[in-house]
Amino acid sequence: MGGLLTASAPGIGELASDWTLDPTIVGGLVLAAGAYLAGARHVRRWPAWRTVAFLGGLGAVAVALQSGLDTWAGRLLSVHMAQHLVLALVAPPLLALGAPLTLVLRAARGDTRAGLGRVLRSRVARVVGHPAFGLAAMAAVTLGTHLTPLYGLALRHESVHALEHALYLGAGLAFWVPLVGGEPGRDRLGPVGRLAYPLLGMPPMAVVGAVLEATSSHPLYSHYTAPARALGVSALSDQRLAGAIMWVGGTLVLVPVAIAAAWAALHAEERRMAARERYADRLGAAR
């Protein structure tokens, strides 16, 4: 979160162009992309759209952690909230659509594949892959990192800040995989579950947004008072904007996803019913 304070708050163009590359993060992202592409080349008929989705997820992580979103996150709470939403609601579903575990399982051979299969069938994997765990993880991370002293601690210590980012990404993956991932062994959600599941992820974000907007007497996080003043921005106004970003941003992502996921589940169920009816008709004709 380096860089010098300027005389005004950043615009969209500055947030998009003010990149500070961390070799560790960039190296990790490049390594993940290379490993995924290598696996995709060794799997027959691996869907290209899954590769595009996974690389897009890595790109979203890069935007959150290397662009102006990270450069300005320590100065304006509103930018920090946008960064959190990218890590929780943009990067994880794209990574989950890439189905990296399925790719690894299909690319592996022999004992390696058998060992991975045992891990994916383990009790821990079943718990982590359950939709209830995803909802609980997202709620705990969203509320715990914004409404406890952990947020202030992350602003003061870079290592805690990095852990906070990892928690958002990890909780986001736990939340999104049951809904959009093509991973083995995950619990299936029916049409009603696919509609309700994303909607159940909204209340924690709404609570954080409401707290930020309702705290009008003083900034909830004193860290932002001086940087906002130096930028000519009211810290309270920026805090209210941050609350709106958390509340409205979560709604704009999760509501359309709920509708689309429910429609896709209904459409898939209709296809399965039609296939069962055709099979029954063939059995009847053969008798």
Terminal residue distance: 73 Å
Residues in helices, as a percent range:
over 70%
Helices, by number, come to 15
Give unreliable regions as ranges.
1-7
Overall body shape: globular
Radius of gyration: 22 Å
Overall mean pLDDT: 87
Order of helices and strands: HHHHHHHHHHHHHHH
Structural class: mainly alpha
The total count of strands amounts to 0
Binned strand content: under 5%
Largest sheet: none
What oligomeric arrangement do these chains adopt?
single chain
**Total domain count:** 1
Structure description:
The model is unreliable at 1-7 (pLDDT under 50). It is built from 15 helices and no strands. The chain is globular and about 80 Å long. The chain is mainly α and 287 residues long. The protein starts with 11 loop residues before the first helix and ends with a helix. Helices cover 78% and strands 0% of the residues. It has one domain (12-286).
Short structural summary:
The chain has 287 residues and is an all-alpha fold.
Labels describing this entry:
single chain, 0% strand
Helices and strands, with pairings:
Layout: H1 12-17, H2 23-41, H3 48-66, H4 68-73, H5 77-97, H6 100-107, H7 110-120, H8 123-128, H9 131-146, H10 150-156, H11 158-180, H12 191-200, H13 202-214, H14 225-230, H15 235-286
Helix pairs in contact: 2-3, 3-5, 5-11, 5-15, 9-11, 9-13, 10-11, 12-15, 13-15
